[in-house]
Amino acid sequence: MTTLITNIKELLQIRDISIKKISGKAMKILPSIKNAFLIIENDVILDFGKMKDLPKINATKTIDATGKIILPSWCDSHTHLVYAGNREGEFVDRINGLSYEEIANKGGGILNSAKKLQEISFDDLYKQSAKRLEEVIALGTGCIEIKSGYGLTVDAEIKMLKVAKKLAKNYNISIKTTFLGAHAFPLKYKENKNAYVDLICNEMLPKIASENLADYIDVFCETGYFNVEQTERIILEGKKYGLIPKLHVNQFTSIGGVQIGVKHNALSLDHLEILTDNDLNSLKNSETMPVALPSCSYFLSIPYTPARKIIDAGLPITLATDYNPGSTPSGNMNFVVATACIKMKMTPEEAINAATINGAYAMNLETTHGSITKGKKANLIITKNINSYAFIPYAFGSNLIDTVILNGKVI
Ligand code: NIG
Ligand code: FE
């Protein structure tokens, strides 16, 4: 099956296969071709170039993209998309003045979602999650990471990861899974937190690893959650099973999560709303990807990750949604890109680099996703008729997507 797309107003994010991530000043550059064609062979990009160089081909299907911009699908490297029910009651509590921390201390927050998750059946959890996955696919997400972490028991953590695996089997989208048993301490371990770390290390991890349910290991390293020592123990235990760390750090406080993540070659360190100069220095000279989650900052009214400071230090940055019922009930990468431009002063070029190729890197998918490159997956967003790509973050409340192509198929 050969699909030919013609008359593309602008084809964005053209990269050589050797490019793994974009850092510092280079993030301001978004290579493109104006008045372009693109050829898809089955599920991959076969060729592209200027319309005047269009070779003679026998296409099964032709799409005329006159007036439209094409870019690689969004790569969402941080989500908690598998969850049960919602928490709009806590949302109202926050409007009325309670903080995220106060709500958690009242037994709300992650533990509220954990209770719902422990009670829901596998099939209902699958149905709720599939609906969300379909929604984000329609919004242009072409590969995604999904975490556990609302189970907090052996069985419920496994249930979450199995739902994510079933989604991966049934939907035409690349899904990476992360084990986040260390998301919060269940109430019964309140007085003996290390016993819960024991449960993670001695029971959850071996079962999850033996069933091949996770690619990565995550810990919510934060004041009141998992301390640095507990985080390091879990990272080391995960490493025994080949699980690479991708961590929640510095959402509310800087307690050494960045240093422990860098020390253990974390693939990514996510949140970073609070970033000290020492943290920034630790990230330099590492291959670890800093990940910002602006719709979480927006929803919780907490500081935005200092993207300018990170980029101006020569580092790369990724943008992801953090889709979850507590801090970010939205999986809309278009909103993330717009918010990064509006609130974090990232340029449209930086934001698009951060939400595509750098996101792919943060899931080890950079050889197959995140750019317009011959041989990579044909995962594309075709916009509506727009003047320039800056219109995507500018018109932040509009859906500017005309067509989504996933693995060569029009969705
Ligand atoms: O990434 N910060 C930790 N975990 C989630 C929120 C969890 C929740 O409130 O349910 C996050 O923001
Ligand atoms: Fe998160």
Structural notes for this entry:
The structure is a single chain. Helix 4 crosses helix 5 (154-170), helix 5 (154-170) packs parallel to helix 6 and helix 6 (193-210) runs parallel beside helix 7 (228-240). The model has no long low-confidence stretch (mean pLDDT 97). The protein is α/β, with parallel strands linked by helices and 411 residues long. It has helices spanning 88-95, 100-105, 110-119, 122-138, 154-170, 193-210, 228-240, 257-263, 277-283, 294-300, 307-312, 333-344, 348-355, 357-361, 391-394, and strands at residues 2-12, 32-41, 44-50, 61-64, 68-72, 74-76, 141-147, 174-182, 216-221, 244-249, 268-271, 289-292, 318-319, 380-385, 401-406, 409-410. It folds into 2 domains: 2-72 and 371-410, Urease, subunit C, domain 1; 75-361, Metal-dependent hydrolases (TIM Barrel). The protein has 15 helices and 16 strands. The strands form 2 sheets. Strands 1, 2, 3, 4, 5, 14, 15 and 16 form an 8-stranded mixed sheet that branches. The protein binds N-(iminomethyl)-L-glutamic acid and fe (iii) ion.
List the helices and strands and how they pair.
Layout: E1 2-12, E2 32-41, E3 44-50, E4 61-64, E5 68-72, E6 74-76, H1 88-95, H2 100-105, H3 110-119, H4 122-138, E7 141-147, H5 154-170, E8 174-182, H6 193-210, E9 216-221, H7 228-240, E10 244-249, H8 257-263, E11 268-271, H9 277-283, E12 289-292, H10 294-300, H11 307-312, E13 318-319, H12 333-344, H13 348-355, H14 357-361, E14 380-385, H15 391-394, E15 401-406, E16 409-410
Parallel strand pairs: 1-4, 1-5, 6-7, 7-8, 8-9, 9-10, 10-11, 11-12, 12-13
Antiparallel strand pairs: 1-2, 2-3, 5-14, 14-15, 15-16
The chain binds N-(iminomethyl)-L-glutamic acid (NIG) and fe (iii) ion (FE).
